[in-house]
Every structure is written in C-alpha cells, then in structure tokens.
Design a protein that fits this description.
Number of domains: 1
CATH superfamily: Nucleoside phosphorylase domain
Shape: globular
Number of strands: 11
Largest sheet: 5 strands, mixed, barrel
Strand order of the largest sheet: 5-9-8-6-10
CATH topology: Rossmann fold
Strand content: 25-35%
Bound molecules: hypoxanthine
Structural class: alpha/beta
CATH class: Alpha Beta
CATH architecture: 3-Layer(aba) Sandwich
C-alpha cells in the first residue's frame, strides 16, 4: 500500500472510499483511491477542513494509521517559505534534510516503559530511493525541480522573525515550514519510506518585503496536482524497500 500526504486534485479521478482508521493515538480519516488496480491512501495532514494548526496535528495518529493500513511508501507535499535566494515562490524543491526547531510536539513512538530503548538513525531522513525516482519522473514529465533543500521546521503557528530567518540561513536552512517534523521522523521509526516535496509559497520574513499569503493557495493547488500525478505514476511502476535503508534504521540498545 502507498500513500500521499497533503495531495489534492485527483479525488474526482477514481472511486475513492472514505475510511476511519482507529489507532492507540486517535482516529484518522483517510480516502482510499483505487486507480488501475493500485490502492492509494490520501491523508489530509491538517484534517479535511484544514482545522488543525501545525502544532496540534496528531502526527502519531496519522502515521500509525498509515502503518496499520499496510503503507510502506509515502510521498508528502508541504507548503514552505524560502530563505534561499535561488528558490522562489512557485518553485518545487526536494527536501533532503531538516533542522528541527519545534518545541512542544510528541516526537516519537519510542516511549520506553515496557519497550526497549530505541533510537532512529537520521543520516538519511528522506528515502533516497523515493527522492531519486521523483527526480527521474519529474524530468520525464517536464516538471522543473529547483534542487535539494534543507527544511527548517518551526513550531508555529506564528511566522518567524527576521532575525530567526537570518539565523536559519546562516546555519544552512533553505526553506521553512511547520509540519515536516515529526512527520518524517515517525515514518522512519515505523520503517516506512518517506519523501517530501516543498512547494514554495512565499519569501520568508525579511527576505523581500512583507509575506504575502494571497498567492499561496494558487501556488499550492497548481503544484500539488502535478506532483500528485507524478507520485501516482511512480507508485504504479512499483517500488522495492531493498533499494534503501529505511526499513532498518532503528538502533536498539
Ligand atoms: N514560515 C513557516 N511556515 C511556512 C511559511 C513560512 O514562511 N510559508 C509556508 N509555511
């Protein structure tokens, strides 16, 4: 089973079935789309009506629901601001690493107690195989990808100060968002291959005047549709967890 987080645009294309998945962390509503014999799970990260702010999203329930459905591969999209001059609003980037500035979120499935102490390896947080497949397919489909990006995850829901953005630039951040951590970490803890594409919606605070959010929805909607199309094509060509290290990234003491 394969999943897309944050994808929109193809719901109308096939027979999608709504399903509520119960987990020990809460229940999650997903859409399962059957396309040419392939079942693809769609999960709206913020809830169907975008009712959850980034710091209150139940990331553990979301990821455990996908695991319980048997998902082994996830492509996600994330709206991001850019603090790199080379990446402009409207561009798409492949996230290759993150810097974590979140503060208050449940971050792990590994809570100790009657479980052994476990640590997850973060040398390659985003699946190398899914990233490579994405680059190849995007090229075939004529979608320009601006490059690899380091994602800075802030706690939100407020935007950043100009000084914070200045610091993020200096320590190697390229794009800034509020949702990719702990999502990517939890996927790895579950042994799921996970890749995320950043859709740049705005210049970060202090980069080029005030943040204008009125273009965000257009940029996201246009790119998400094309990205979702590419994800589905990759899913339909088949994937193999032996082409990466995602399924064995846990170090148990
Ligand atoms: N900062 C944080 N999160 C975001 C931004 C931003 O500028 N744009 C879209 N998500």
């Amino acid at each position: 089973m394969k999943a897309i987080i944050g994808g929109t645009g193809v719901y109308e294309a096939g027979n999608s079935i709504k399903r509520t998945v119960d987990t020990e962390y809460g229940s999650v509503e997903v859409d399962i789309l059957e396309l040419a014999g392939e079942e693809i799970v769609f999960l709206a990260r913020h809830g169907k009506d975008h009712s959850l702010p980034p710091h209150l999203i139940n990331y553990r329930a979301n990821m455990m629901a996908l695991k319980n459905l048997g998902v082994k591969y996830i492509y996600a999209t994330a709206a991001v601001g850019s603090c790199n001059e080379n990446f402009e609003p409207g561009d798409v980037v492949v996230i290759k690493d993150f810097l974590d500035f979140t503060k208050s979120r449940p971050m792990t499935f590994f809570e100790g107690g009657d479980q052994p102490v476990r640590h997850v390896d973060m040398s390659e947080p985003y699946c190398s195989n899914l990233r490579e497949k994405f680059y190849n397919k995007a090229k075939e489909e004529g979608l320009i990808i601006k490059g690899d990006a380091v994602y800075v995850c802030t706690e939100g829901p407020r935007f950043e100060t100009a000084s914070e953005i200045n610091m993020f630039k200096q320590i190697g951040g390229d794009v800034v968002g509020m949702t990719n951590v702990p999502e990517v970490v939890l996927a790895k803890e579950l042994g799921i291959c996970y890749a995320a594409l950043g859709i740049i919606t705005n210049w970060c605070t202090g980069m080029k005047g005030a943040i204008s959010l009125h273009d965000i929805e257009g940029a996201v909607a246009k790119n998400r549709e094309r990205l979702t199309d590419i994800f589905i094509k990759i899913f339909q060509e088949g994937l193999d967890q032996n082409n990466c290290t995602c399924k064995d990234s846990i170090i148990e003491l």
